[in-house]
Amino acid sequence: MVDVNSTVMQVTISAGRLPQFREILRAGTMFSVSGFDVSRCAQNFRLTDSSLMIRFNESTSFQELTEPDSPLPDEAFRFRNHSELIGLANTNTQLPDIIGEILSVRSTVCDPPEEKNRVMVTLKLDSDETVTLSFFDAQAVAFHKQLKTMRVDPKVMVITSINPKIVGGRLFLNATSGTHVYFDKKTRAGDALFYKLVARDTGLPSAAPLLRSYAKVETMTIADLSSFIVSAESQEIDFLCTGKVVRVDTEKGWCYVACSKCSKKLQRTESAFTCGVCNNPHAVGALRYRVEMAIADDTAEGTFVWFDGVLTKLHSIRASEAAQMLAEDGVNPEDTRLPPFIADMEGRTYTFQVRVTAFNFTEHHKTFTITRIAEDHGRLTEDGVGSDGDGDDDDDNPNIKTPPAADDQGGTSKARKKTDAGTSNVVKKARAG
Ligand SMILES: [Zn+2]
């Protein structure tokens, strides 16, 4: 609630008393309130700048005012700019509001909605910085449906109570259970930005509908890919990325001996191979590629894993043949140096398909599996779609070792100072809800 002095305070009503008030609790309504308790706000996930909050008790009187005789402000948002959001990121202290121009919306919501859902909105803030805002599950579905029913794509979005996070040095905003969305002219703040944008418009028709589902294979930047798996619910989905190999991780080797029955990694004993999965102490082994590389585009860097099917196809040489080439006396193939054609991948740019699986959503598993490759940084070749190749690669997945991903989580945020909320500009909102 907001008063005539533009002071915004959080109000809580216990569930037991809610039926008494629920009917008249409508956004935009004016009330006179008397006989309530005042207590301190929790210090985390704060929805207002005030350190106090109002609690309705059994003697609270709550009367609707129908005469518009009060100079109450129309609305009150706690907009934060890009650098303030960075200051708040990962602190969980404030759930601020933002306003921005909608550049694109991507959604995993299908019709009818399946279990795990996510919508990512790219917004341009006042300072021209773009940020990614994510909705999850029921909120994602509701947002998707709301956009779908709109006749014209909205331009402006006001979003309340978002939780800023920094991941891999980039700012991401997550919707919370308290998040409300207002499009275009639904708010005064939105209205002002809307007309500013319309005035700037070139008059060209807009290129494509705003809301795009993640197609079977959607192009993604590596930063968006990293953000997709952060705090998202587990799901299986493919994306297309284009990036340059920054370095090949030589520490992790380039191949392993796989069980010819189940493709899992075999344990080398003195004279034989053991497969723990098949429970076979004398398993037949086959050499398979597995190479980790750091690949970057101009948004971020990620760790990607190339498996046997993709690398065999790319270089037209099997891992066992490569091992023959490099064979050294008394050295196991998996311990030999990198085949030159793999070392040569460093510095090259590839367009490749990435499969995000449930595996990517477990903590610290920040490697992405490359499932297909465009031979020459262009279109994917159709024969790369082979289902057997993909299947093989999936089998390999449980062998992926955990990359040292923990470091890129906190570094940036720790280095930043928390913004003093008291000095920020606050726009007030009168309408509850
Ligand atoms: Zn096996």
TrEMBL record:
One of its GO terms (molecular function) is damaged DNA binding. Pfam families: Rep_fac-A_C. Gene3D superfamilies: Nucleic acid-binding proteins. GO terms for biological process: DNA replication; double-strand break repair via homologous recombination; meiotic cell cycle; nucleotide-excision repair; telomere maintenance via telomerase. Coiled coil: none annotated. Transmembrane segments: none annotated. Keywords: DNA-binding, Metal-binding, Zinc, Zinc-finger. This is Replication factor A C-terminal domain-containing protein. Residues 379-433 are annotated as: Disordered.
